[in-house]
């Protein structure tokens, strides 16, 4: 799952004297940004230190609670992570990133129904700029749970918002293949390749679609391109299977 904390680079702030409310808010934002940097680099200890300082400086900063939730989740402290998600939503129950991130957390722990409720809430908020991502995340969650028909309905909803959204087009291609709907798979894959960057994963999907369509020429072209451009990839190794 894609997590949706939107954060910017910041600077450390020393607290040598009591800070005004404005300075505390600024310091909390800066420490949240630094914690995010550490989190992206896998440095959980420094990330935890900075995000706890941020929350001391501003306990109502939603982004800080989202980062804290992610840190706690990676530290295998689900109760603490859930507490931060709950706090974020208590501050703003319509906050798109909070709904999306919490849903991803719940899906990862097998709470699919609760996750879908939150993703639906995020997708229903016209002010949330990443509604299409929330719908696509819901589809991935359902697909991983073996609920392909429901997943396809969410991918279609995502495409109704953004017709050329690559993750949803890929999802529809994969689902069509799984259903042995070869013509549909070719249709979705054609749309997918028109908007997505070439990757080993894309080329491998092309190999599979061509194989299902019994199209030896296209199969050969995709396989050759995969071998030549990405010889060390896992997908290239699978060509011999």
Written account of the structure:
- By secondary structure, the chain is mostly helical.
- It is 72% helix and 0% strand.
- It is built from 13 helices and no strands.
- α5 packs parallel to α7.
- The chain is elongated.
- The chain starts with 20 loop residues before the first helix and ends with a helix.
- The model is unreliable at 1-15 (pLDDT under 50).
What's the number of helices?
A: 13
- What is the tally of beta strands? 0
Low-confidence stretches: 1-15
The secondary-structure element order is HHHHHHHHHHHHH
Protein name: Type IV pilus biogenesis/stability protein PilW
InterPro entries: Pilus_4_PilW, TMTC_O-mannosyltransferase, TPR-like_helical_dom_sf, TPR_rpt
Q: What would the keywords be for this entry?
A:
mainly alpha, 241 residues, disordered N terminus, TMTC_O-mannosyltransferase
